[in-house]
Amino acid sequence: MNTAGPTNTGCDYSQTWTATYTDACGNAAAPESITFTWVQDTEPPAISCAPDYITVAADAGETYATNVTVPTPTTSDNCGGTIMLTWTSSDAAQGSGTGPFPVTNTFQTGTTTLTWTATDDCNNESTCPFSVTVTANDPPDITCAAGVTQSADAGLCSAQVNPAEPTVNAGDPVTWSWEMTGAVIDNGTGPIDNYTFPVGTTTITWTATNASGTDVCTQTITITDDEPPVFTLPVLADGYCVEGFISAIYNPGGTYYIDDLTPDRRDYYILTNGNTLLDLTGVSDNCPGAVTISWEIDFGSNATIDLTGNGQISVSTPINFPLGTNLITFTVTDVYGNDTSASVNLTVLPRPDITDP
Questions:
Q1: β-bridge pairing 240-241 and 339-349
Q2: Are strands 230-232 and 319-322 parallel, antiparallel or unpaired?
Q3: The domain at 46-135 falls in which architecture?
Q4: pTM of the model
Q5: pLDDT per position as a tens digit, 54-63
Q6: Other C-beta atoms lying within 10 Å of the C-beta of residue 152
Q7: Could you tell me if 232 and 256 are in contact, meaning their C-beta atoms sit under 8 angstroms apart?
Q8: Residue 143's CB: how many other CB atoms inside 10 A?
């Protein structure tokens, strides 16, 4: 007996056995052959789920999506033949099935994984996963917190504030982003903690985002400067003498303080040109910007304002201060209208009395 094979063409295999017989006298019978054929396949079919996911929105106001079309994987096999396609869902309610995925199935919010299996005629298998993600169809709805009005921190032209996040009326969870305009130009994400806001009004535009959309609202942060400027008053002597004489002629018999001297008596103290005796020092404010100095003088402290001016008094000299007590009131005002006032007295002393002998 002779054996030939096995040989194959693709997945088809064959093997032939041939039998011959010869008797003792050398007579040979015609050979007899038999051939067996079979299919031998160990290679699994090819299967592709690309793209391997879809994302859909839930039905309006619901937590699930209906009428979702799931694409059927593509398959091929080295031996041709019939490929059986089956699927199994991670959602127990969907179970498993054969052939295309039924469009009547409902997908819950979240991600469901389908495992597709391709099986060829020789029971070789290949699998590929496919995911269906259903996002909530619930756009955000937010309401901003009330605006904040706050004084600047002591000694500063700013204040630390923790603006409250808006209230989420619908669509939670959301992610936050924000943009500041006005006194502050800035932007960022997440909450706003211990933020330093300068004096002025800052508008915060909050944006809430989820898979279904966005919503915005605005909040204002107003920092006011309520702190007045400070300064140091001039330190004056107990009294200042009237202007002296270089020379004068005494007129005996004249009336004192009227015509007893030539020239007449100068019964006043002169704050000479550029004299800084009455200038303020240490003028400062918690906020930047020029401050305004104003002053008024009540000559003789008789509750009548006799002279006013702006800036340091030295720029308005010379000024003649009469005998007695002269009340000088200073007011310093900052750029936000806060002011501080304080007064000093400049006392002018008379010269010694001169009488007839």
A1: parallel
A2: unpaired
A3: Sandwich (2.60)
A4: 0.60
A5: 998 888 778 8
A6: 20
A7: no
A8: 11
